[in-house]
Amino acid sequence: MIHFDPTTGRLERGRPPQWWVGDVLVGEGNSRLTILHIVGRDAWAAALPVGEYRADSLAEVGFVHCSDRGTLHLPANAFYAGRTDLLLLVIDPTAVGSPVRWEPGDPADPGGPWFPHVYGPIPTSAVLATHDFPADPDGVFRLPAALALIPTG
So where are the chain's domains? Predict the structure, then answer.
C-alpha cells in the first residue's frame, strides 16, 4: 500500500500515517495535515450559503470521499474525465466535526491505496482553500503545483 506522508512530503509504502488513531488525529503539527475533495463549481457555490457541503455519496454510502496529495490523481482520472468545472477543496480534517477514517479505496483490495472518508457533511469553515482543478492539456488530472509543496516552519 502506498500513501502520502505529509511529515516527509513523499509517497511512502505501508499503512497510512500512524498518527491517525481511529477517528482522531494525534501528535503535534496536525494543523498542516489536510485532505482533499473534488467538487463541481455549482455544488460548492450551493454549499456556501448553507454553511456545509454534502456530497451525494454521503446519502449513498454514508461518507464523503476524499484523497490525500498522493492519491488525488486516482479518483480524478477514474471518475472526472472530461469535466471542466472542477474545484479542489483543501480541508482541515480536525475541523469537520465528524469522524474521518482512512479506509481502503477498494475494500476487496486492502493492500491498495487507502483514502480518507468523512462521515458527515463538511462545514464550509473547515475548507482552508479552494483551487481550480482542470486537467492538463493531455486530459490527465495531476496534483496542482500549489499543493505539491508542504510549508515548513
Answer: 2-137
Closest CA to 89 of 51, 40, 134, 26: 40
Q: What angle do CA 43, 75, 79 make, to 5 degrees?
A: 65
d(CA 83, CA 47): 20
CATH tag, 2-137: 3.20.170.20
What pLDDT, in 10s, does the model give residues 12-42?
565 554 444 444 444 433 445 899 999 999 9
What residues contact 27, with CB distance under 8 A and at least 6 apart?
19
pTM: 0.78
Who's near 92: CB < 8 A, 6+ residues apart?
31, 34, 126, 127, 128
